[in-house]
Amino acid sequence: NGAGVVVQARDSESVRVPTFRETSRTDESVIYRRAFHVAPGNYALTYAVRDGSGQRSAGQRQLIAVPKLSSPALSTLEPVYEAKSRHDLDSLPSYLPAPRASYVFGVDDSAAVYLESYGSPGPVAVEVRTPDGKVAWQGSRVLSAQNSGLASGIVTVPLVHADVGIGTIVATLPGSPDTLGTRIFVGFGPDLPVLSFKDMLGYLRFFSTPGKLQPLYNAKPEERGARWTAFLHSTDPNPSTPQNEALDDYFGRIRDANATFITDSPRGWLSDRGMVFVTLGPPSNSFEDYGSMYMGDIGVVNQLSTRVRILVWEYSQYQTRIIFYDPNDTRQWRLTRPSMSVFQSLLARMTNR
User: Fold this and answer.
1) What secondary structure, in 3-state letters, does the chain show?
2) Which of 2, 30, 94, 212 has CB atoms 3.0–4.6 Å from 208's, for a disulfide?
């Protein structure tokens, strides 16, 4: 508080991972939780984390405001994995936070937040708001009241009408001027970084037929969750697992295509090589040659005597091959006309599975 240190703590813990490869990941976090007793006021919270066996370290400093407990009032909403109600204000809250506050659209049917109210045992009004601010759900919840004027517990709110993107859970206590909220992220899963429902439908052009996607395009915002769930079930090759393996593999190929076909135009998964790779997967064999022996396949008018570099992808499982050509020798590969017809036929077969 100002120049003085009000309270500090130091801990040494071990983080155990199953494989050495886990030590190089950058997409995961370690949840560290510590409670402090401080008076209401403005503070600077500073933390540092260091590798006990190396030189790596990181830190951050941020300003925080500790409010005074008035009556009636609500605490900050805290997304949690699990929590237990506390009996009085002198005890510490017991909960496991969910710092990412992320939920899978059409799969996670609810979100849990830990909440406390002070001086009022009455019901708490709760809303779920979509990224554009519309109310997707509203209701009330009664917290577990204690003798000290404290009520606490987990508030579970349904996400059936929540939309994709950054939404908000808002709580209001009757008689209190405060309206408190916490942000949540509703997405398509950690491996599907798509920020809108419309974007997802665009990505599915090589995964399913227009007829199967049309109900999703026509869905009203409040219908999207149910229709997306039905779509996942209808395309899941193994319903006994929580994942849709076909969709996970499909988006894995999109990521690989975006990282591999960076010289093509357009780049990545929408290039000729990209859309073949995303739809059919990697070829069982590939090689480059010159088009003098494949001029009929290339189908280039008035260039029958021109040597054109070609790229051949063989797919033994389909007993076919796909041929690309590089008209300007710039490594920007184009499908030959006959191969485009072959690909369209295989695409229709794959998306109708």
Assistant:
1) CCCCCCCCCCCCCCCCCCCHHHHHCCCCCCCCCCCCCCCCEEEEEEEEEECCCCCCEEEEEEEEEECCCCCCEECCCEEEEEEECCCCCCCCCEEEECCCCEEECCCCCEEEEEEEEECCCCCEEEEEECCCCCEEEEEEECCEECCCCEEEEEEEEECCCCCCEEEEEEEECCCCCCEEEEEEEEECCCCCCCCCHHHHHHHHHHCCCHHHHHHHHHCCHHHHHHHHHHHHHHHCCCCCCCCCHHHHHHHHHHHHHHHHCCCCCCCHHHCHHHHHHHHHCCCCEEEEEEHHHCHHHHCCCCCCCCCCEEEEEEEHHHCEEEEEEECCCCCCCEECHHHHHHHHHHHHHHHCC
2) 212
Using only the alpha carbons of the chain, give its radius of gyration. 28
Model pLDDT, residue 87: 81
- What would the pLDDT profile of 136-180 be if each residue is shown by its tens digit? 999 998 888 777 788 899 999 999 888 888 999 999 987 777 788
pLDDT confidence tier of residue 306, bands split at 50, 70 and 90: low
Query: For residue 35, which phi and psi values (nearest 5 degrees)?
Result: -105, 145
Q: Which two tokens stand for residue 84?
A: 């237990």
Retrieve residue 351's tokens.
């998306």
Phi, psi of 153, deg, nearest 5: 150, 180
The answer to whether 351 and 344 have CB atoms below 8 angstroms apart is: no
What is the layout of strands, in order, in the sheet containing 334-335?
285-290, 309-315, 320-326, 334-335
Cβ contacts of residue 97 below 8 Å, gap of 6+? 31, 33, 78, 79, 80, 81
- 256-268 pLDDT per residue, tens: 999 899 888 888 9
Q: How many CB atoms lie within 10 A of CB 148?
A: 13
Q: CA 44 to CA 42: how far, in whole Å? A: 7
